[in-house]
Amino acid sequence: MQVFAIMPAAGLGTRMAGPQPKQFLSLGGIPILIHSLRAFAAVPRITHIVVAVRKTEMERVQAQIAEHGFADRVQVVEGGDTRQDSVAHALAAVETTYGAAPDDIILVHDAVRPLIDAATISRTIDAVGEHGAAIVGVPAVDTIKQVERTAHGALITATIPRESIVYAQTPQGFRFGLIQSAFAEATADGFVGTDEASVVERAGHPVAVVPGSAFNLKITQPGDLELAEFYLQHYRA
Ligand code: C5P
């Protein structure tokens, strides 16, 4: 059985408001995307990694991957207009280049979560082996409110017991046959999700949750990079 990692990295990073997409910013002197790729390249069970980037970035990313010594494990493909499109392009590459079988495992990981650790990746692979679909999640520490947006601001409509909430992170893993058929259904229905699990959930397949780590933050807004630098120095040395 083969295990593939797919990394969508074709976003523009508009919420970061920086000069370049966040996945190319430097963290401890190395691009964020390279940190993320390296974490997966270090797991021997992962046979191949496919990263989706914008067409204009393909050459640069290829060069960075070669510079860091794992060009033999990583294929660069062109991303799409949405995260889901970028993942779909990478899934197509997994099938055409490596002949993925329905029982093979696909892990999808945000390029902008550079502090993912090997133990969490392994836990996700094991859970996909058991359940067919599994994602990393962390318990909610805040009280969660459902709100309605009105002209006068947000008004609370419900308080959701936080014991029933997890924050979804990545990796998110699935049997190849399952994610392929769920993606085909979503495309046919015009559904676009903000993660892969939502696509698989709506196809009616249960998705397990394995524990994640607060250090696995998604670099999204100004300030996140400084926090990641701090974690890298103090917790991931
Ligand atoms: O937009 P969001 O923060 O959900 O992006 C999560 C990941 O999806 C990022 O790594 C981003 O580069 C990637 N993405 C992509 N193609 C897009 C949009 C986002 O690969 N069109």
What labels describe this entry?
237 residues; alpha/beta; Spore Coat Polysaccharide Biosynthesis Protein SpsA, Chain A; 7-stranded mixed beta sheet; two-stranded antiparallel sheet; 7 helices; 35% helix; globular; binds cytidine-5'-monophosphate; IspD/TarI; Nucleotide-diphossugar_trans
Report on the structure:
The protein has 237 residues and is of the alpha/beta class. It has one domain: Spore Coat Polysaccharide Biosynthesis Protein SpsA, Chain A, CATH 3.90.550.10. It has seven helices and eleven strands. It has helices spanning 32-41, 58-67, 83-98, 118-131, 176-189, 196-202, 224-234, and strands at residues 3-8, 26-27, 30-31, 46-53, 74-78, 105-108, 133-139, 144-150, 153-160, 166-175, 208-211. The two termini are 33 Å apart. The chain binds cytidine-5'-monophosphate (C5P).
Structural class by SSE content: alpha/beta
CATH class: Alpha Beta
Q: How many structural domains? A: 1
The CATH architecture comes to: Alpha-Beta Complex
State the separation between the terminal residues, measured CA to CA.
33 Å
CA-based gyration radius:
18 Å
The CATH topology name reads Spore Coat Polysaccharide Biosynthesis Protein SpsA, Chain A
The coarse silhouette is: globular
The distinct ligands, each listed once, are: cytidine-5'-monophosphate
- Residue ranges: pLDDT <50 for 5 or more in a row? none
Major sheet: 7 strands, mixed
What is the name of the CATH superfamily? Spore Coat Polysaccharide Biosynthesis Protein SpsA, Chain A
> Would you list the SSEs in sequence order as H and E?
EEEHEHEHEHEEEEHHEH
**Strand neighbour order, sheet with most strands:** 5-4-1-6-10-7-11
Q: Report mean pLDDT, rounded to a whole number.
A: 95
* Strand runs, count: 11
Q: Into which percent range does the helicity of residues fall?
A: 25-40%
Strand content: 25-35%
Number of helices: 7
